[in-house]
Structure formats: C-alpha cells, structure tokens
UniProtKB/TrEMBL annotation:
PANTHER family membership: LUCIFERASE-LIKE MONOOXYGENASE
Protein family (similarity comment): To bacterial alkanal monooxygenase alpha and beta chains.
A UniProt-annotated Pfam family: Bac_luciferase
Any GO molecular function: oxidoreductase activity, acting on paired donors, with incorporation or reduction of molecular oxygen
SUPFAM superfamilies: Bacterial luciferase-like
Organism taxonomic ancestry: Bacteria, Pseudomonadati, Pseudomonadota, Gammaproteobacteria, Moraxellales
Superkingdom, natural source: Bacteria
Chain ranges of the Luciferase-like domain: 12-297
Gene Ontology CC entries for this record: cytosol
Protein name (record): Luciferase-like monooxygenase
Amino acid sequence: MGTLQETKFSVLELAPVRDDKTVEFSLKHALELAQHIEKLGYDRLWLAEHHNMDGIASSATAVLLGYLLANTSTLRVGSGGIMLPNHAPLVVAEQFGTLATLYPNRVELGLGRAPGTDQMTMRALRRGRQETEDQFPHDVLEILSYFDDAKPQQRITATPGQGTHVPVWLLGSSLFSAQLAAKLGLPYSFASHFAPRMLGQAIQLYRENFQPSEYLKQPYVSMGVPTVVAETDAEAEYLATSAYQRVLGLMRGHSLKLKPPVESMEGLWNAAEKMSVDNFYAMAQIGSKATVKAGLKSLLERYEVDEFIFTCDIYDTEKRIQNFDLLMQIKKEI
C-alpha cells in the first residue's frame, strides 16, 4: 500500500455558482483555482459535465477546458467526465483532439455513461438519438479508434484527433464501467464523491479482471473525495453546511446554488434527509488538517487507491482555495 506522499492528489471542479454571484464569477474562479493548484503541485484538474443545474457552470466542458489550458502551463486537465450518451463519439474526439493538438500531453478524456441530467434535458441534448444497452462500450471503442494512429482504408478520421493518443479514463458509480475499464485496460475513476455505496466492490471487480493493454500495464484507480479542510474541526463543520444545503437542494429538486454556511442544520432537514446527505457524503473528509490526514490515511488503507480526486463546496472562495492549500500541506508533511 502506498503512503499519502505517494498517492496522487487531483481536483474535480464543477464550477459551483454562489447564490450571490454570477456564472462569470464561477468560471473565472475555476481558472483561479486551476492556476493555484498548478503552483501547489496537484496532478490534474477535471471538469464535470452536468446540464440544467443552476449551481454548476461546467456544462460546456470542452469549452471551459480550453479556457483553463490557455491560462495554465503545466497542469493536466480533462473531463470527469464527458457524459457520452449526450454526444456523438466523433465530435468528442475532434474536440479533445483539438485541445490535445494545441496543448500536447496535457489533455485527458474521462467518459461516463450517465446523461448527467434529468429526463427532459436528456431528450433536449440527444436530439432523438436512440441509446441501446451496448452503446456505451461501442462508443468508447469508437473514440479510442479516433485517437489511435489511422488504419489503412479507415473511412472516418478525426481531424484534429487522429494519432493524438489522448488518455481515456472510464468513470463510474456502479459496476458496469469497472468491468469495461478492466476489459479494455483503461484507468478507472469511481464517483465516490456523491455515490460511494459500491466503491469497494467496483474497485475489487476492476482489479481482479484487469487486462493489460497498450494504454495501461497495471490497474489504476482514483476515487472522488469531498473535502472541507479548515484551521479547526469546528470551522470545517461550519463551512460544510453549505455543501449539506446543496445536496439537500438536489434531493428536493430545488436550486443547487451554493448558500452561505449556517450555525446549525437543525430545522433545515428532517431525520431521513440528514441520513441521505450523510450517505451522499460517506467518503467526505471534513475537519482540521490533523482530522483529514487521519481520514485520508484510513481511506488509503481500506481501498489502496492510486489517486484521490477532491471536490469542495465551500461558499467563501478564499476558504475554498485554502482547502486545497491545506490538503497539499497534508500530502507534503512527513
């Protein structure tokens, strides 16, 4: 098992929208965060694709990635992920092939099989495209072929894209993508930042069935971890109430805009809702550096992952930046 120092630290950014700020503010804050974690030495920053959610501004994922790439210099950036049912594989390959051509060796493509939205928005995105059960594996293979070197008599090529060998990851919150990632020999990232229930089972399934490939010789796993790290446990618990309110809004079908922290959640949720939020955040690390360090060590001992990819829903943008400062301090402490 690796140590915290050996485990890669990365960031999953959803460009959260505050209830008192504009979407433009959120997008510019995403860049500020990218530039900051690049200096701190984080391994990668991914953007998540969601649609029709007023509190998430990363819907046009490839476009926002271009903005981040143009204003950083070494940080690897990618999608965590592109929701493949919403897109034609060729278009995805061309978009990420363009980014990879402009910014070599810095672009990654994480793929998910959920639409990342509600049924009505899903229909608006798909424009009548019919999905079948085996469509996702077929689409993944199609994208991999577009990033590979062109084959003789290949009738459709991605330009840009062909021959760029953009690294492809599979993302999942169930067992399906774990099996597919193992079969194709691709790196795997589990969405335990919001759906942790099947994490252990998925990782075991992936590792036991992994087949080495041209992309990857040994299994590689990252897990999503929500974080709220502050100077004290009490401050972190206070700041975390913004995240709790956000999940509560998701459960109730209300706004997902970040709300200011509150002294207590009592009266804002009932017992069943509190249990649901607790389950949602089962992997969350909330507290001081010492508390979170112990928590991350415990996760590492239990799951032996290669990488943590952190989310953070702190309302105060300076405190949100500080969260990632404190996480990197934890990693670098011997």
